[in-house]
Amino acid sequence: MNKKYCIQKSPFIVPTTDGKLIEEHFGKATDGNSNISIAHMVAPAGWSEPFQTPDFEEYTYIIRGKKQFIIEGEKIILEAGQSIKIEKNMRIQYSNPFDKECEYLAICLPAFTMEAVHREDE
Question: Which end of the chain is more exposed for a tag (fewer CB within 10 A), N or C?
Answer without folding.
Answer: N
